[in-house]
Every structure is written in C-alpha cells, then in structure tokens.
Amino acid sequence: MESTAPQSPAGLRTTPSWLLNQTAAHATRLLSEGFAAHDLRGYHYRLLAALAEDGPASQADLGRRCGIDRSDVVAAINDLAGRGLVVRAPDPADRRRNVISLTAAGADEAHRMGDTIGRVQDELLAPLSTAERDQLTRLLTRLLQHHARR
Amino acid sequence: MESTAPQSPAGLRTTPSWLLNQTAAHATRLLSEGFAAHDLRGYHYRLLAALAEDGPASQADLGRRCGIDRSDVVAAINDLAGRGLVVRAPDPADRRRNVISLTAAGADEAHRMGDTIGRVQDELLAPLSTAERDQLTRLLTRLLQHHARR
DNA sequence: GCTCCAACGTTGGTGAATCCAACGTTTCGA
DNA sequence: TCGAAACGTTGGATTCACCAACGTTGGAGC
Questions:
Q1: Which parts of the chain are coiled coil (chains A, B) (predicted)?
Q2: If you count Cβ atoms within 10 Å of the first and of the last residue's Cβ in chain B, which end, N or C, has fewer?
Q3: Which chain A positions have a beta carbon within 8 Å of B50's beta carbon?
C-alpha cells in the first residue's frame, strides 16, 4: 500500500483500450509540446496538414478529412486566417461553400510543422525497431479502417 | 474537391501519432457508450478497476496508479463515495492520507463494468486476429513503459 | 416552375479529460 | 528542531469532441 511501486502489473493496464488511451495521451502530450513551439494546437495542425496534402477544400470537406466537427472547423479556420496562414474565399461555383487555401506563409508553417511532428514520431516510437513501427502502423490502420464507418 | 471520397490516402493519416490518436478516439467513444450504461465516466471506471485489482489505497496512490491528477481524484472519489461504491476513511497510520476502499456495491459495479469493458475490447479489436491483438498489446505496452518515466 | 430536402457555414453551448497553482495540514529527514 | 516533502482540497484553464439550431443556398422530384 506504499507509493514505492507504481509498476505492479494488473488487469486494467493490460486492456487494449487502456493501452491505446494511455499511449495516445503520451503522444498528445508530446505533440502539444511540438505545437506550442509553433503557437498552434492540434486542430490547426490537422487542417494545415490536410490543406498541404490535398489542396484547397471547403470547410465541411476539411472537417471530414480531419475528423473535426464543422463548428470546430469554423473557429480553427478563423484563427488560421487571422494569422495569415490560410485564406477563406467564397466558392463561386457553390455559394454555400467557402474555399480554404493555404497562403505561402501557411505552406511554410505546414512544412515546418511537419518537421516538428516527424521528430515527435521518432521520440514517441523510440523503443521500437523500424519493422515494429511498420507493424504498429499497419495494425492501427486496420483498426481505423474498420471503425471508419460513421 | 468533392465530398464523395473521404478515403484518399495521405501523409497526415499515416503518421503514428495520428493513427494512435484517432484509434484512441474511437476507443474512447466505444468506452463512453459502455460507461453510460453504468452512469459512470472514465475516471470512475479507472479508479474502481484499480481498487478491485490492487486493493485499498490512498488518493495520491490511486492517482499515480491510474494516471489521474490528485485534484481530479478528489472529485471522482466524491462521486463514487456519494453513490456508495467506495468509502473514504482517514488513515490512522498517516493522518495526511485517506484510505479509499471498495464497498460490496463498488466491487459488484467494478465486476459488471469489467464485463462491459471486455465486450468493448472485442468490438474495438474486431478486425484483428488473436495473434495480432497480442502483438498490438505488446507494442503498446513497450511504448508505454518507455514513456512511463515522468 | 415550385416544393422539399440536403448541405453549408455559423453561433452557442455541453461535457470529458488533462493539467496547474495555491493553500493548510501532516510527516519525515537532515 | 526545522525545513522540505507529501497529502487532500479548492479553483481555475485548456483542449478536444459533440450537438442543436438558424438562415442561406443547391439540387432532385413532381
């Protein structure tokens, strides 16, 4: 009952959902530190990365790509636009939509952020070999695909 | 630029941290549904499970075991105590501490919750074979151990 | 053409999970 | 004995995730 041994193996800490959540929590913490260096948050990075990878898109499309709710996309895009990293322009072909595009500064920031994130991956996966990292990636990808139906 | 294909493969969605976070998000959602059936939340379950597995403990110890901040343990234990699932008693050997113990009702609830969580694991890992589930568990466990130094 | 429904952007709000600072009390080591 | 450390507690902050509602716009069916 003393505080000396926090590493007693038990059932809770062997459930996949516990492992996933705790590992994800560590990942989130590492990512947050990386984000802080750019004065951005997770939503900002996801949106910038999606724009850098797949090009301009409507807000609703961005939300679907990034797994972010439409209403949260609004606020995040407001931030990014306010900092000159993206531009919000009405879609002439569909007046319901806004077309969000990266500015040059936004593309730069996305690139720099990508470097930061890459270093975080290395730190996160430090104890795993290259083959193990691939294995983990494959397993998680399959889980994600299976649950992607929403 | 249309909304028909949300499954375009791209870099963001192949980073381990993205996969971990998204998978964890699905796990959290599935768990939340399970918790809701018991009218509990994640913190409650973690504390009950830790008590059921390792026996009574001080609040600070529980926090370390479960990865929950001391101040959040207070509120969660308040809830659990208010519902008669745990008892909070001063530690006669150390008057700074409270000893938290499961009641009979709390042990029952922990057991039932364990069943629910077990079903959630199955749903979460549905696409994986037994060997793959073990593999995932091992990889995540190693990651967690590596980052456990705080 | 007109009607109805769907999609869009937006506002506002809710909740869970995480974390931090500070405080008074109690314990323990130097 | 004295100061540092641990404990429980209060209060607050942030991030992520989700939902309901509204007015506007587009499209499909009649």
A1: none
A2: C
A3: 10, 12
Q: Is residue A141 one of the residues assigned to a domain?
A: yes
Nearest residue to B26 (alpha-carbon basis) of A106, A73, A83, A142: A142
- B3 inside domain: no
Q: Which helix (H) or strand (E) holds A60?
A: helix A59-66
CATH code assigned at A120:
1.10.10.10
d(CA A6, CA B59): 13
Pairing of strands B86-90, A98-102: unpaired
B147 CB closer than 7 A to any strand C atom: no
Residues facing residue B57 across a β-bridge: B100
Domain count, chain B: 1
* Residue A102 near residue A12, CB atoms below 8 Å: no
For the stretch B117-148, pLDDT in tens is 888 888 888 999 999 999 999 998 898 888 87
Look at residues A93, A115, A124 and name the one whose alpha carbon lies nearest to residue A35.
A115
Q: Which domain holds residue B82?
A: 18-146
- The strand C neighbours among A residues 85-124, by Cβ under 7 Å, are 88, 96-98
Q: Is B62 helix (H, G, I), strand (E, B) or coil?
A: helix
* Tokens matching residue B69: 């901040």
Query: Is A56 within the bounds of a domain?
Result: yes
